[in-house]
Design a protein that fits this description.
Strands 3-2-1-4-5-6 form a six-stranded parallel β-sheet. The chain folds into two domains: 136 residues, Rossmann fold; 66 residues. It contains ten helices and six strands; from the N terminus they run βαααααβαβααβαββα.
Length: 214
């Protein structure tokens, strides 16, 4: 199933490193702070209004924050990043470094909800060179976040390869994998113990990607 894969598309948070509860808490508070800045709501009201629309109407928390704030998704992503720093939660990862050394024969893209400059900083903190990746695609690039298909289509247009030669790697089925699969890409869920009914492969860690492809 994976012998034809030539392009690896990586999610960022919760994929390059195991989902971190403290990081998620910092991200969520950054989203709340962004909304408060534009609405003047109390923290309590912000939490309440966010809960009404996140996942029920908008699978992307960034998009939910943007809608509530009355700003674009790209603006929300940029503003949120001012209020937390991923580098506080990561450190050099020798296993991740070794993984990318093994995967040199593949083309690599990042498709993530965030800001390119911050992702580059975090990659360096993890011990990876940003130059590994041909491009980092965010809402700054295409105007919307996953699970919108725009980012996936953008990468397909860049590579000029059949969708089936791309593998989308992520930790969230709805946001990362469903849109990729709908376009014909192969999909892999990482950091999961229970087999996914959506993904083409389910792996307990991101480090197992090499076993899948090599």
């Amino acid at each position: 199933m994976f012998k034809d894969i030539r392009v690896l598309i990586w999610d960022f948070d919760g994929t390059f490193y195991k989902p971190n509860p403290q990081l998620w808490l910092s991200v969520r508070e950054a989203e709340y702070r962004t909304i408060i800045n534009h609405t003047g709501w109390s923290h309590e009201k912000t939490v309440e209004e966010f809960a009404k629309v996140y996942k029920t109407m908008y699978p992307s928390a960034t998009e939910a924050s943007a809608v509530l704030s009355g700003i674009t998704i790209a603006q929300a992503a940029i503003e949120m990043e001012e209020y937390f720093d991923r580098r506080d939660f990561v450190k050099p990862d020798e296993k991740l470094i070794a993984l990318f050394d093994k995967l040199k024969s593949f083309r690599h893209f990042i498709l993530a909800n965030g800001v390119v400059a911050r992702h580059k900083e975090t990659l360096i903190a993890l011990g990876l060179s940003p130059d590994i990746f041909e491009e980092m695609v965010t809402s700054e690039t295409v105007g919307v976040t996953k699970p919108h298909e725009a980012g996936f289509r953008y990468i397909l247009d860049k590579t000029k390869l059949p969708a089936g030669e791309h593998l989308m790697i992520g930790d969230r089925e709805t946001v990362d994998l469903v849109p990729a699969k709908s376009l014909g890409m192969k999909t892999c869920l990482v950091w999961a113990d229970t087999p996914s009914v959506i993904a083409d492969a389910t792996l307990p860690t991101v480090y197992d990607i090499a076993k899948l492809l090599l």
